[in-house]
């Protein structure tokens, strides 16, 4: 009790005492004009990163919350000589006034333009965007693609960011966890830098591969409005977004609406083999016919925040998402040995999900080295899943399966984190979080049942980080208590999982890091349900209430060499899962049961090599990546090995007001349990022209592929019921879309604040009954 009281007193004192901090501002110019998009880098006496940004349209910069001490400022811009300035014993706010950069004479054929200034810190990479990258981009997602950060794959067509490391790519704006659409609403001019946590600390949560944090200018007055549209004039496909914000004093109001719609045409081809206990087999083929697919997704956000200088920050956000999917598969189903004995198959699936949630966030900054964060999120998810499957021969209905699942889920997530700088080169973080969720699902139709599930957790973590010159290390651990309840079935577990990381700066161009962690994963609520769903006349899907927690060990070795406009990085990732929750197929009489269970193990090995260069000659960058996925999936009655080689190439060219983007990749496949799922093969061409604050252009998807041949295969290797399925969507090839982007702002002045934490609940807990 005495130790607890001392800790509490220390915590309260830390909340009220903080170091004094200062502001450094100035203006860069060349000739008589302000120098826009120039890089401003603030470093400590030991050359470690202390702050950084790009100048605004008038060449102005402002770095706030700088602790007392000695620093060096470095100013750089394409076509100008780099200038450095030493600040000795900073002890008050400083206005450096006008700072002139001298131009340099450059031969046309020389490679002189450097890539984004990337600074390695003990915690992350700090990337400052260049004039080239800002001009070539229309939103935050495209800017990230142009900056070519290591191990990231930025898909600007499907609005996805992935990494070769296993786990979630977490997106943040000024520290706040956000959705990909909020990143797309960012204007490149407003982005000061990107903090890329490629080895994130434990405060970001479990299963996070990397954190991409956009640090933006904080508006204190004026407003802005942006429109971003991509629509096909020949096919029913489009994405449209409108967002805006208004600032008055210390308050900011804002929001956006994003909508995706399509009405596509596709078909399914499938060959299934059913092996019975007596040694006989039945093979049937599904010959798909073209049918419509419809999808409509909407995401809306309204927020209000209040900033009291650099002391504290409050943000309240109301979010709503709506998704609707309707797919119909029409096929001729027949035995391979008797094609004339066919039936007409129709498989119609509808899925509607509505998810509103409220996010309340509070941050108290206690100087440069102490921060307290509190975040609470409440979520409601309503889910409707409908399916109707029929098989008809002539005018006779042989099979008629109907299922309707209605689900409701309520959850609340709360988290508190405190970070303290213990010494000049070390800090400790600790935090507590908890979650409670309730879900009920009502299944009606051919099978009728109801499920009620409760799940939640409480956990705490602590992590220590230290910088010892060129060597950096961190270690920490979570302690978690979890529960999952469904009727008489109960799961209680106490888990601990450590994480450790070591890195070494070999020299100013080379960096190496080794990291590893242990983690756990709980079964999905939909898998834990005791529901049985009929797939077709031969197959049944069944949940498993007896599932247990699975454990994972993973390690990653990463090396990077970077100099001027060229960089190369190599990584080796390894993951081992013990008792993973994976699929299995059982034979029960003449029926094949598709279910899940805790299997023996699953392993993945992923070496990857990436080359990046540019901008070359002032207008072109390119990025080439090659890698291999090797899987070892060991079930209770199966074992499969699978290898997939993949590549990705992309280039961006920007000349005056013209921008051209080319992207090509082959299938990057995944294998889990007994199923391999193909990634998407893409070739994308985007071209556009900038007119003041507007951009207009064209986008072409897979221009060299046939609309009849493009497919994505899924292969199941079960010994009882293997299958080879291919999905075809006509509009995945030779689709043309017109793109338009427009930004308008008025009376804007900027400041900055960094929100560092947010949570979301996306899992509905409803079982899907389709194939």
Level-1 CATH class name of the largest domain: Mainly Beta
What is the percent of helical residues? Answer: under 10%
Radius of gyration: 28 Å
Q: What is the overall number of helices?
A: 5
Form type = globular
CATH architecture of the largest domain: Beta Barrel
The tally of domains stands at 2
Please outline the major beta sheet: 27 strands, antiparallel
Number of β-strand runs: 47
Mean pLDDT: 84
Distance linking N and C termini: 57 Å
Fourth-tier CATH superfamily name of the largest domain = TonB-dependent receptor, beta-barrel domain
User: What is the percentage of strand-forming residues?
Assistant: over 45%
Provide structural commentary.
This protein is mainly β and 771 residues long. The protein has 2 domains: 2-221, Immunoglobulin-like; 222-751, Maltoporin, Chain A (Beta Barrel). It has 5 helices and 47 strands. The strands form 6 sheets. The chain has a 27-stranded antiparallel sheet that branches. A 6-stranded mixed sheet has the order 9-10-15-16-13-14. Strands 1, 2, 5 and 8 form a 4-stranded mixed sheet that branches. A hairpin with a 2-residue loop joins strand 41 (670-672) and strand 42 (675-677). Mean pLDDT is 84; it is low at 1-19, 105-116 and 752-758.
């Amino acid at each position: 009790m005495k130790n607890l009281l001392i800790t509490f007193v220390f915590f309260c004192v830390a909340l009220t005492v903080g170091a004094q901090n200062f502001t450094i501002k100035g203006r860069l110019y060349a000739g008589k004009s302000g120098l826009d998009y120039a890089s401003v880098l603030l470093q400590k006496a030991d050359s470690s990163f202390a702050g950084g940004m790009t100048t605004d349209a008038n060449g102005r910069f402002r770095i706030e919350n700088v602790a007392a001490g000695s620093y060096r400022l470095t100013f750089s811009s394409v076509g100008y000589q780099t200038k450095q300035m030493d600040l000795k014993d900073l002890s008050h706010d400083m206005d450096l006034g006008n700072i002139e950069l001298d131009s340099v004479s450059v031969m046309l054929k020389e490679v002189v333009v450097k890539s984004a200034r990337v600074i390695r810190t003990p915690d992350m990479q700090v990337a400052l965007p260049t004039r080239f990258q800002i001009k070539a981009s229309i939103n935050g997602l495209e800017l990230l693609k142009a900056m070519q950060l290591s191990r990231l794959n930025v898909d600007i067509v499907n609005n996805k960011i992935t990494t070769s490391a296993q786990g979630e790519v977490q997106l943040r704006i000024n520290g706040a966890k956000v959705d990909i659409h909020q990143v797309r609403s960012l204007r490149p001019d407003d982005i000061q830098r990107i903090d890329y946590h490629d080895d994130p600390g434990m405060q970001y949560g479990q299963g996070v591969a990397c954190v991409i944090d956009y640090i933006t200018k904080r508006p204190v007055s004026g407003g802005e409005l942006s429109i971003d549209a991509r629509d096909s004039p020949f096919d029913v496909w489009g994405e449209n977004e409108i967002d805006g914000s208004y600032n008055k004093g210390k308050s900011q109001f804002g929001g956006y609406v994003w909508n995706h719609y399509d009405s596509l045409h596709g078909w399914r081809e499938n060959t299934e083999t059913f092996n019975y206990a007596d040694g006989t087999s039945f093979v049937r083929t599904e010959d798909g016919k073209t049918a419509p697919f419809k999808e409509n997704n909407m995401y809306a956000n309204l927020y209000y925040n209040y900033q009291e200088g650099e002391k504290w920050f409050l943000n309240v956000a109301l979010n709503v998402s709506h998704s609707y999917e309707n797919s119909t598969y029409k096929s001729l189903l027949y035995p391979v040995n008797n094609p004339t004995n066919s039936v007409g198959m129709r498989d119609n699936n509808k899925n509607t999900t509505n998810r509103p949630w409220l996010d309340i966030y509070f941050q108290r900054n206690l100087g440069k080295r102490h921060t307290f964060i509190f975040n609470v999120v409440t979520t409601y998810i309503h889910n409707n899943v409908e399916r109707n499957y029929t098989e008809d021969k002539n005018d006779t209905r042989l099979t008629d399966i109907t299922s309707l699942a209605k689900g409701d889920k309520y959850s609340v997530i709360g988290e508190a984190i405190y970070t303290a700088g213990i010494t000049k080169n070390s800090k400790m973080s600790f935090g507590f979080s908890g979650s409670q969720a309730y879900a009920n699902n009502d299944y009606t139709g051919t099978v009728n049942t109801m499920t009620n599930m409760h799940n939640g957790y409480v956990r705490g973590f602590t992590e220590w980080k230290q910088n010892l010159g060129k060597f950096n290390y961190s270690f920490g651990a979570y302690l978690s208590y979890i529960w999952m309840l469904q009727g008489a079935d109960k799961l209680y577990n106490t888990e601990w999982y450590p994480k450790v990381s070591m890195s070494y700066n070999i020299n100013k161009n080379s960096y190496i890091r080794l990291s590893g962690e242990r983690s756990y994963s709980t079964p999905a609520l939909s898998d834990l349900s005791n529901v049985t769903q009929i797939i077709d006349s031969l197959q049944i899907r069944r949940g498993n209430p007896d599932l247990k927690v699975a454990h994972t060990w993973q390690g990653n070795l990463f090396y990077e060499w970077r100099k001027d406009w060229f960089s190369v990085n190599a990584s080796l990732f390894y993951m081992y899962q013990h008792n993973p929750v994976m699929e299995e197929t059982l034979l029960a009489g003449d029926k094949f049961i598709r279910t899940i269970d805790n299997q023996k193990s699953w392993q993945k090995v992923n070496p990857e090599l990436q080359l990046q260069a540019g901008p070359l000659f002032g207008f072109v960058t390119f990025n080439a990546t090659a890698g291999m996925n090797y899987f070892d999936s060991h079930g209770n009655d199966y074992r499969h090995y699978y290898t997939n080689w993949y590549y990705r190439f992309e280039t961006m060219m920007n000349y005056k007001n013209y921008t051209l983007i080319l992207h090509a990749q082959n299938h990057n496949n995944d294998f889990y349990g007994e199923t391999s799922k193909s990634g998407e093969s893409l070739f994308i061409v985007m071209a556009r022209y900038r007119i003041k604050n507007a951009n207009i252009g064209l986008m072409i998807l897979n221009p060299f592929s046939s609309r009849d041949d493009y497919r994505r295969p899924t292969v199941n290797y079960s010994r009882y019921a293997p299958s080879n399925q291919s999905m075809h969507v006509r509009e995945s090839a030779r689709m043309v879309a017109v793109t338009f982007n427009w930004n308008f702002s008025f009376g804007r002045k900027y400041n900055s604040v960094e929100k560092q934490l947010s949570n979301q609940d996306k899992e509905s807990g409803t079982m899907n009954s389709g194939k």
